[in-house]
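Pasting as-is:
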Amino acid sequence: MLKFLGRGAGFSDQHNGACFGYGRKLILMDCPLVTFNRLKNEGLSKFVPETEDDSEVEELVVAVTHTHSDHVAGLALTIHLATFVWNKHVTVIAPSDEVKADLRFLLDRLDGCDENFYTLKTYEEYKSDNANDTGWIKAVIATKHVPRLEGRCFGYNIEVDGINTVYTGDTRTLEPFLPYLSEGSVLYTECSAYDTGVHMYVDKLLEYRSFFEEKGVRVYLMHLDNVDEILSKISGSGYEPGPMA
């Protein structure tokens, strides 16, 4: 299953980022500063079960959901650390051409990452170029988050440890993700204690409880703002906070 390096919302001390091992690759879902800090301080192999030493980790792959700073602020730092300290290649997956252009501007123009330090591809390009080694990534899912990023916010349908998995990223609705939740799937969804209109409000999330129970979908919560309030409201629902790495 996914393990979280941090699972806090935008104003928290540790922003939301998750990871899992795919063979000897480390797959990162977004790359906030907490991801950079934990990888720097704890090493890579801790997060890749098939390896015992950092030298055995072959590559880092970062799947970006959207470009808010609490999701990509550690990306350039991680690329530079991977290049100069770990001697590892980083592949960055953008969910669309538009987000790819935004990430190129961020990495190239603002952070000064040499294009030789990383590979930036759209989801479609990544699937096409890695046809024999992309069993973990199945689809990108467009969703709604904030008006200023309309059309540039996505989640992912992935496979983790052989289990169909949906990762929403930041979203104000679950509707785009429901068709990807087959029986026995795992859903990682953001959850907010506050009804802001741009995040998945916990009361609204609880309305889907019977749907998840009927399909046997396990639900893990991430991007948490008021943790105590959320835990109180989800008590007895079967929902759980995403597991920390």
